[in-house]
Specification:
- This protein has about 170 residues and is α/β, with parallel strands linked by helices.
- The protein is built from 3 helices and 8 strands.
- It has helices at about 5-30, 140-150, 155-165; strands at about 40-45, 60, 65-75, 80-90, 100-105, 110-115, 130, 130-135.
- An 8-stranded mixed sheet has the order 7-1-4-3-2-6-5-8, with no helix packed on it.
- The radius of gyration is 26 Å and the shape is elongated.
- About 15% of the residues are buried.
Length: about 170
């Protein structure tokens, strides 16, 4: 039979592993996946409308995550949303004439930033601002425009309105 001391040692080791596993799980769930974050550089872009974009949203090129949104602020002069992004250092050859757009993951998913590289031989660096931006498509606005168009394009309604004005 196993000694009492050996059994207690095994239980202690098991508890240490369980605590370590829960700590790693907590870091993964909170988004703090690395203790030593990779080297990055910061770029910015100004948008008319960012929709539901949030800090820590992914920044992607061709579907591959190359960075994340670090800050969203409002420019007091232009009233545009200025989005700061940290890009991983090993993606340092992104042309400075690239375009940036806010897209939605799926029909109702979270927003993310997609960078579309262009053709310049000069590249983005720390503090660069991307000039060519495409704002988010907000589903509520699109539905509102669609309903408004439906209401104004109804020929029967326009005919009735015309007849009412003719009788007055």
């Amino acid at each position: 039979m196993l000694s009492q001391r050996f059994v207690e040692s095994l239980v202690g080791i098991f508890l240490l592993f369980a605590i370590a596993a829960l700590t790693i799980l907590a870091f993964k769930v909170s988004g703090l996946t690395t203790l030593f974050p990779p080297k990055t550089y910061t770029i910015t872009a100004a948008f008319d409308d960012i929709g539901g974009l949030k800090v820590r949203a992914p920044v992607k090129i061709g579907g591959v995550q190359v960075g994340e949104v670090t800050n969203i602020d409002l420019d007091p002069l232009t009233f545009k949303a200025v989005v700061s992004m940290k890009i991983h250092d090993h993606y340092k050859d992104i042309p400075d004439d690239s375009t940036v757009g806010i897209l939605t993951a799926g029909l109702l998913g979270d927003n993310y930033i997609e960078i579309t590289p262009m053709y310049n031989k000069t590249y983005l660096k720390e503090g660069s601002q991307i000039e060519y931006t495409q704002s988010a498509m907000v589903l509520e606005k699109l539905i509102g425009q669609f309903i408004y168009k439906l209401g104004n394009d109804n020929p029967d309604k326009n005919k009735e309105n015309g007849e009412q004005h003719a009788h007055q």
